[in-house]
């Protein structure tokens, strides 16, 4: 068995075993995740030197499925497995009192397996397949409490948004396979060609859907209706990360025009989502908006042509954001909700969790020496150094500023004030989960050096200017967020930001309603078509009945004719002898009369005979003469 | 050497005759005989499957004199295109008789009709003689008509009328086309192999034959705008009728499209390919949108069939249009696999809708709701089937649609707009799931029972095959691919 | 010569005409038979004239004349036989009274 399967198989087997056996739930899921972590670490160790591990699996004819582990993919696999493991550890405590745990752990394990496959996928078919599968997993997990209408809605919305955007991935994949003649990712990325701009834009569309970039950010905030461990997993290392991972991996393909658009989308998103986060009144929704904002930053890095910076930020963000979410889940347990009005002062009640939260928040804001500082610096440096796109730098800095602002605001709201804490004891599992991720969030920055060395990607060394600007932005943001309330900070934008910066009602109005309108139009047309065919049928029936009437008439006529002939027949039969004999007798009489008349000629007188002879001869003569005179 | 094909073909008929001959059999006996017959047929189909099909031409051919004077004979055989459909039919009919084993209302006639239909279906897929094909094609219509008219729901007369109109419209052109092919062949024969080997018609004659076939098959598939009989028939048909109608009988149309239109008039098809392609794209998108607007669960599933069969038309049209053999192979692989997958998935969906209807006596999504909590097993199987139908990877439709779209983009890039259909269908099913299964469970359905053993036996095999085909499509695709890659057009 | 033929033919025609008149106008059987003889005589004159002026070399004309004269003689014999028998039976040869052959 190839080492490539090691990160994938354990969670997959765990998921299947959970569905079949329905016992030992947490143990099995945790075991799967831990083994996956071990497997991916081992895999990373094997490929760290720059080799690749490949495994071919039977797939479509002439398009086998490939799993390829290179340094980057192995690294990502480690990140996914780490986050997954700790989230599952946390979930043991968080989900203790829920029912339907079998489903929860099974889908979580499946999710992990799918994400590992996505990371390690070496061909487009497999990538596309697991890309959609993680969509399914997130649907099932966001809709875990499917009895709640908002969870059911959110699940459907998340799936539909990402699925619609996935059409971009579908078409891009077809174009790449078509132009490269193979479904292998590495080969088709090198092939490039004329289609690569279009393919790149389509890939971007898919990534925008998954990574919740403007204007497809709406579903991410609503997805908070799911359980918190699910949010942590979705936002840090799986569903949402998939979009950024896709762009990072396909970076060699992206042409300058595409990079421009990528940078633009990322820049706009990081600012817009930052503003939304700043205006948010719910901790989890704030974190969700922050996720979109941070992925915007990664897209900025990709757009600036430095995917390495995006990758580093992805790794750091994975650790940071999962810590934040897990901590938020703990607060949620303490207060029975995630609204800031409920959460006031919760930091004092849960000091250990809050400490983890603070560390992660500062890391996200970019305070040295925490991990976020290094990754964000890399992004800002990349943005500042980008050729010909001077606006990328300011956008990235604005994103960093906003990050500081909303994190400080969250910290402020969580620390100040006081609220009623429910008598629910924190769980050791949950604290372990938070700290298990808070530690990498803190120290991951130190590992960036070796990681860069392993990855062998072009890097931009952060100049002093970038470091200073980044620090300044973070400090300003933190200060402003702590001191100035959000409504005043945002001014007139605040009400709009509260509505999620939606333009004219958002995608629901712009896409959903027209689609439904078309559907209803089709339905009306359908009704008409149906009626038309039915009336055709009625006409046929009418014709049939008319022809039946005609038939009946014809039948009557035939009957009539029959009767008449029958009558004739009986008539004839009854008067048979009389009639026919009479006829014969009449004939005889006529013949006799004729004979009697002819007898008159026969007078017996010789003169008569002679006279007749003479006349006859005269007539004959005349005829002969006449004939001869005309013929000659 | 056993004549496997003929045995498989006529076993159900024997079963039907047996059931009709028994003097006053108990209902139970009837069902047991039906299940045994269908199971034996499945075994027959499986042994045919393991015999396999060689790449080019037909395998397992059996031939008998029939009407030598006009060159018609009893000829049956399979290739990689028909073999999956034979297997699909055998599976679906077994599932159908298992599901129907709770029927108490005139079971004898019903079961006999189902078994007759099975013979007709397998016969349609295996026939290698024009006349024989037509006979089976027509017999299936008759038995389906009686199933709908005799055991349908509230408004069955109307549906039966609809069915009747289209049947009338649809069958005659095919007969004309078959006669045209017969008269056009150098030595008059009804042997379809000869027709495929040397397409007998060319020029305008071929075009007219193609048009005639397209009319028949477009009604059968059904393609917009000749599809209106489908929702009507489905809504009124009994559950098993729907399963067979959607699962097996719609494939007659697409199978005919490949076997007759594509293989016997290839040049004409290439000329008219764009029209067919547009027809397919319109069907797929129209079906998807119409499905989105439905509030009746069964109508919804019926319209998704229009959508899915639209993809098949697109695949076949792309195969006809393209000059690149590798693209053609991919397109046909996708189209044939799509037929197979659609049979499994839609069969399962119709069974599940039937189960819901049995329990709730309504199919209106607005009246249902929260069923996932009330009947979790039924709910989750429906979720699985729904996601399979919307083309989720790992389930049966994905590899098929992937190949169709891939070939479409390579062959006729503009037609790739059809891919919007998968987003719309996703919306359709998400809406249906949301309204029917998610949300608060309702008091009204509290006492609804979950799946019984009989229902599990009916729907289980289909779901297993759906997952199996999705995860490892090569077990079906292998046999399809061997034929499609050897196809010379 | 042609003139002579015409004279002969006219003579024959006159004889025939007198004969027809006699046969039709007389009521006595003997007289009727005489009329008939005159008709035949006209025919004989014609025959002889045609033979003499048109085909003098052929003998068939003469032979035909002899046959006709023989037939005339035989006919006369039969006719007088009938007349005698009639006279003996009825005492008269007036043909106006003889309607016995009426059918």
Automatic annotation (TrEMBL), chain C:
Describe its partners and assembly state.
Answer: NDH-1 is composed of 14 different subunits. Subunits NuoA, H, J, K, L, M, N constitute the membrane sector of the complex.
Query: What is the recorded membrane topology of this protein?
Result: Multi-pass membrane protein
E.C. number(s) listed in UniProt = 7.1.1.-
Q: What is this protein called?
A: NADH-quinone oxidoreductase subunit K
Q: Which InterPro entries match?
A: NADH_UbQ_OxRdtase_chain4L/K, NUOK/Mnh_C1-like
Q: Which GO terms describe its cellular component?
A: NADH dehydrogenase complex; plasma membrane
Q: Which GO terms describe its molecular function?
A: NADH dehydrogenase (quinone) (non-electrogenic) activity; quinone binding
Lineage runs: Bacteria, Pseudomonadati, Pseudomonadota, Gammaproteobacteria, Pseudomonadales
